[in-house]
Design brief:
about 450 residues; alpha+beta; Beta-Lactamase; 4 domains; 10 helices
Length: about 450
């Protein structure tokens, strides 16, 4: 067999190898499978020390996808970080879309030093889409200068790799291309076109903005009963949520200290009166005593005031209902023997027939509301029978709700046809705001989240 025949057979085997490699690349069904084939099986058509597969992600960043001989490349390794900087530099050059040998003199000096230290000859093999944009590529490192025949074989294989990589990654199209493709498809199918315009029209329909929030049935203008003086609760005379009459004793305070003060001030008043009377009788004959009469009289007046004050405190230690209603509080055992201060709420006196709905709307869910906006409450005890009402009052300042959520406080009065529910019942309220398009109604929250994220 002659040398010419040997060369022909060798060239034929090389061509068959390239075609087989192309076939395997196009038959790959997974991205990892194709990446492994590119960096490892390319040894069959070219000699190299190392191959690195890289790609450009959606954000335009360069990502190392695979390295020959390595199961999972570590992107934080110094070697791959150095390669990433080199790839980024080369990708910005004019010849980034062409296969070529990379010389240290053609890139930044700091990056070129890394290449000189490796003592390798790299080959830049980019992947391109139909528009000529670089999607990624393969970086082959060889210990010898690249021969033209090796570059030619790799060029043929790189074309197959690029096509398969683009197909498996499903490269995103620009919005213009997607729009044109959608328009062409819609022209081919009139039913889809009609459905699309129907959806667009539905999105323009006006609907009322709504927000659901936790609510509670509360009394309108309740009376807060608190101790008139600092002291200790001695007795609660009623049960929680009991009906009481005006003047009925609700609770009383310990009276030991106040009663002792009253007894002491009474005796001090008797002593002051005795001194005053004795001085008054003696003043007729003793000029010096006559000067003390006015002072003793002032002392008597002071003691009278102290007695009256102590007596009034004794009368006030029993707290009475100022009107008929329901006495709302938690449990009598929570208060008996507990020290309390002036102004501290002990019992709320409410009219059972005058109730409203207190709604806590979280700040993130707040919508624009009109005066007398419609409010519908769904009681937890009977969610199938909603109760309707109208917005009566809306707070302008947000405050912490009982659920520890920053919220706006809404008061809604019930309609006249509604039987007022019991005070203390929990509910879920649905508040109806201004009318907006259905599109805005659906996408208001996503748009709000996007604006907060980007800081618009």
């Amino acid at each position: 067999m002659t040398d010419t025949q040997d060369e022909k057979e060798r060239a034929l085997r090389e061509l068959i190898t390239v075609l087989q490699l192309e076939k395997h690349a196009r038959a790959a069904t997974k991205k990892d499978e194709l990446a492994f084939l590119i960096v490892n099986d390319s040894h069959r058509i070219a000699t190299y020390e190392q191959a690195v597969l890289w790609a450009v992600d959606v954000a335009g960043n360069i990502v190392i996808e695979a390295v020959s001989g390595v199961a999972r490349p570590d992107p934080n390794s110094p070697f791959l970080q150095s390669l990433t900087r080199i790839f980024k530099s080369i990708a910005s050059m004019d010849n980034a879309g062409e296969i070529h040998e990379v010389m240290a003199s053609n890139i930044d000096q700091s990056l070129g030093d890394d290449l000189n230290q490796s003592s390798l000859f790299p080959l830049w093999c980019p992947f391109k889409d139909t528009n000529g944009s670089v999607l990624g590529g393969v970086w082959f490192n060889s210990r010898t200068r690249w021969q033209q025949k090796d570059i030619a074989r790799l060029e043929f294989a790189i074309d197959a790799y690029s096509h398969s990589w683009q197909a498996l990654n499903k490269t995103r199209l620009s919005w213009r291309k997607r729009f044109y493709q959608l328009s062409a498809k819609l022209k081919e199918n009139k039913i889809r076109t009609a459905l699309l315009f129907g959806v667009l029209l539905v999105m323009l329909l006006p609907v009322s903005q709504t927000v659901t929030a936790p609510a509670e049935v509360v009394a309108i203008k309740p009376i807060i009963l608190s101790p008139p003086v600092d002291g200790v609760i001695k007795k609660i005379n009623i049960r929680p949520n009991a009906l009481v009459k005006a003047g009925q004793i609700l609770f009383s305070l310990e009276d030991s200290n106040i009663r002792n003060k009253f007894d002491v001030s009474t005796k001090e008043l008797d002593v002051a009166l005795a001194d005053y009377r004795r001085a008054s009788a003696k003043s007729f004959s003793d000029e010096k005593t006559r000067e003390e009469v006015d002072l003793l009289k002032a002392v008597v007046e002071q003691k009278k005031v102290e007695v009256l004050y102590s007596k009034e405190l004794l009368q006030r230690i029993e707290v009475r209902a100022t009107r008929d209603g329901i006495a709302v509080f938690s449990d009598e055992n929570d208060w008996v023997g507990k020290p309390v201060r002036v102004g501290q709420k002990i019992i709320t006196l409410a009219d059972p027939s005058a109730t409203e709905l207190l709604v806590w709307v979280p700040v993130d869910d707040a919508v624009s509301l009109d005066d007398n906006a419609k409010v519908r409450g769904f009681l937890n005890v009977d969610p199938t029978s909603p109760i309707d009402g109208k917005l009566r009052q809306l707070s302008y300042e947000a405050q912490i709700s009982p659920d520890d959520v920053l919220s706006f406080k809404l008061h809604a009065k019930f309609n006249e046809t509604v039987t007022p529910p019991r005070i203390g019942l929990r509910a879920t309220a649905k508040v109806y705001g201004k009318q907006v398009s259905l599109f805005y109604y659906i996408f208001r929250r996503p748009f709000s989240a996007i604006r907060r994220f980007f800081g618009w």
